[in-house]
Design a protein that fits this description.
single chain; mainly alpha; two-stranded antiparallel sheet; 4 strands; about 5% strand; globular
Amino acid sequence: MSFFNSIGRSMSRTPRGPKRSPTPTSSTFSSDMQPPPVPSSPVTPSIQKPLYLCSPFVEAALVKGNFKTIVVLPKYVDIMEWVAVNVFDFYTNLNEFYGVISECCTQQSCPTMSAGQNLNYTWINQDRKSVHLAAPTYIDYVMTWIQNLLDDENVFPTKSGHDFPQSFPSTVKHVYRQLLRVFAHIYHAHYPQILHLRSEPHFNSLFAHFLAFGREYELLDIKDVKGAANSPVGIGMLWEKWREMGILEG
């Protein structure tokens, strides 16, 4: 029955008796009758909203407007060169940010590579098995692996006449996925330290630029940003929020 139908029926009822106070008094109950117990409502634990989704932190940025304009391939620039230079910059800047807050990311404070309430990334070891690592160990592996790739002339050529390998797109996509995981862990576990340093505009702008570039050149899958339904990535909500604000495109 709808709310409005219930109003109509109540208006056609027979007149009621004298109005009684809704508040029980001592005369409401007889001497041998006890007031009914007050039902206890179950307490639902509230999930605290991450700081990076709260205002004014979510709006903090060095760049105003849509990041689409700064990721477009410049005229006369080779796309491989453009991707390589930007990946190098993302790695360098993220590595510097992590270096600043690394003393807060320890084996004790971060025993897993967490990126959400129910999400812990695993590392594939030499035996091709997924293993759980403490976050500082995982990130050290990632950064060392990427640095070795950047120093390899066969993967990231820097000399004239050296072409990029055919495997370069897939390699960069793998690099991008691992960098995303480092971003995700810092947002999930160490954003208070970013705020303490008053660096949220710089870090937000770096990450938004990273996301926009990854989507522009198909280096980033949305499933990696959002995660699975039962283990979502925390930054997936940030992605959606920035889309609503017009900072990122869908």
